[in-house]
Amino acid sequence: xxxxxxxxxxxxxxxxxxxxxxxxxxxxxxxxxxxxxxxxxxxxxxxxxxxxxxxxxxxxxxxxxxxxxxxxxxxxxxxxxxxxxxxxxxxxxxxxxxxxxxxxxxxxxxxxxxxxxxxxxxxxxxxxxxxxxxxxxxxxxxxxxxxxxxxxxxxxxxxxxxxxxxxxxxxxxxxxxxxxxxxxxxxxxxxxxxxxxxxxxxxxxxxxxxxxxxxxxxxxxxxxxxxxxxxxxxxxxxxxxxxxxxxxxxxxxxxxxxxxxxxxxxxxxxxxxxxxxxxxxxxxxxxxxx
Length: 290
Fold this sequence. Notes:
By secondary structure, the chain is of the alpha/beta class. The protein is built from 10 helices and 11 strands.
């Protein structure tokens, strides 16, 4: 296991490097078939710290490509910290550091030569509460590609992204209206469209439906099922029914005596919820503790 300490850049470059050392995306990455899929990402002995406090302890875990992986567990067990480690969002927290390796298509994303900005373009993130920019619907989706120097037809890209987020038909006649005028569920789908527009191959979702009503929640869940045909999705959720409905694989975490979160069990979602190998997992999914 290797160790790396990460801090925000201090040279005024915002972490942008001319030649990010990341693997090229595969031309056939969105082709689905029935063969076993490789891991898009792999944790190897990962521990996450905030100052002296260890929030996540020694996690080793593969994330399967073009599938939905749900991370479940009680509050405070490090689910969101682990999720944010995937695209180095924890780098932005003063005093945070990550030990171990996270391999993205075989490249350690905490290697010194990796450009965190480019990494976040490839691994998009949708947060717990919808956070559209105070701009038009069109400008929200075009923002990422524009700052990344997109050379194609932006209007076509905006339409394509909104269609993939199942929002186009609802907003096609009001693209110049403020994104803040949309409902909560529409705003969250807009944030998903915004993430898609930068052409990622992985999308992270941190409790994406917790602030939404049941109808909007089902829309987001249906959308996730469609998106996994093209993207690897990792979702953190406290909602056991949601994890059971939408995910292909489930990761269960809990806290040890030192308050650090650790991995208890990972497996196909059906097995985790019906025949878990670990007693702790069974107690959690059955509601005996939480």
